[in-house]
Design goal:
Rhopdopsin 7-helix transmembrane proteins, three-stranded mixed sheet, globular, 3 strands, mainly alpha
Amino acid sequence: MEQANQTMVSEFIFRGLCDSSKIQTFLLLPFSALYLMTVVGNLFVVLLIFIDPHLHSPMYFLLANLSFVDFCLSSVTTPRLITDLLRANKTMSFEGCMAQIFSEHIFGGGEMVLLVTMAYDRYVAICKPLHYHSIMDKQKCIWLISISWISGFVHSLSQLLMILELPFCGPRIVDSFFCDIPVVIKLACTDSPKMGLLINADSGVLSTICFIVLLISYIYILTNVRHRSKDGASKALSTCISHITVVVLFFVPCIFIYLWPLNITWVDKFLAVFYTVITPVMNPAIYTLRNKDIKNAIKRLKSKHKDSKDKL
């Protein structure tokens, strides 16, 4: 019994995205470009919101936090994915694997709650515009952001503690490009599938609840505005469409991976790539390309840079 309870596996071996070395070499450039765009795009949004006084509002405070979380979430997996494309021996220590799972879920869980917070912000802004600044004051924003980070931490810690209870004493080949709960718990030396279902359900239920709450919130916002005026509904739809797009892109892959697994390896890998690599780079593009305030802030930044050059 003592030996069965001890973790005997010291490292895990990844199979990666595919077995073909040519395809992996081909994927190196696009994945490197995507990660570079993720870092530059998200950190630029954070910096722009921080330095431009016109963007010091609750909506952009939340958007800056979303960009930071996206940068962190992508950085947990993508750099390792890129370096492994060039390596034949793709290994990670047991401790490193657990750290990756913890980091991935603290940022992923935090982003889910943050997106719900952003929906609440849009509800107040659109349905109660006269009371917006009194409801969404600085203290409320900090409180809401704190809740998202605490929720992510509690969710991630609960996942990690359950995984550490499992005995890993034999198989160590992970059929993926990073350590994630569904693929790692398959390697546990236990005959009880209930623990695996419980661990997966933790992430799946959180994803589904947040997704349903978000859909109901945006439907309520649009329905509420539609009864007032058609112009108002059009503007509300334009404002919410970017949020809805991000919600669908982020939550649908998570729900399929954790709550409704397809058990088709290439599909699981595609979904994992989608929400860890592609979604973080799309978020700043979706928000900034449709946002006049962000565009005006970029123009002001260019103008300041040009003026400083002329003075020199």
